[in-house]
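Researcher: We're teaching a course module on how sequence relates to structure. For the next exercise, students receive a sequence and then see the predicted structure as tokens, so they can try to spot secondary structure elements on their own. Here is the exercise chain.
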Amino acid sequence: MPDLISEVKVAILGAKSGLLAQQMGVVPFDLDLADVAIFIVSANHGIISADLEEWRRARELYIPSIVAISDLTASEIDFEDMSAIATKMLDPVVTPYLVLHSDSGSPVALIDLETLKVLDYSKSLLVIRDADAEHIDLVNEFRLEYLEAVQDAGEDSFAAGLLFPALPWIEDRQIGVEQIKSYLNQIPVIR
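Model: And here is the predicted structure for the students to work with:
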């Protein structure tokens, strides 16, 4: 799939929006002009009232939206818990990836719930490998829930503003940046 991100008008809302824009290589737009919105939600600070207002506005404008969950290295709330909070406070979200941690507890990898591939960021280069049997067992319930939600929503449901992915964003390792970009590439652009 060609990289169309440079043609997509992206609104990035929330703390650290400048850092995410820089890591993604995009210039952010105002929500009213955007093709897609990324809402950065901190695992430390939760969802603030300004986030709620902007989320409602994006829904009124029918803008496809992503919830990027940040501050996952310095919080007692993990990605799955923050995704559940986003579902309760915003709209139901889907989690196409879950975070895997090192023995020391640091987030170092993602597991893709569709393919069951592990995207390991623990070394300087990204390593993609098949998930271990123990990982598959641990994520099986999340995987079934995710696949069912995607099937129920239908093809192109994200681009239509009907499916809201929650994606982890671990700023210091740039974990989640490519996954966010893959969703941006699903937005049709007018040439």
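Model: If you want an answer key for the exercise: Residues 44 and 74 are 7 Å apart (CA to CA). The first helix runs from residue 17 to 24.
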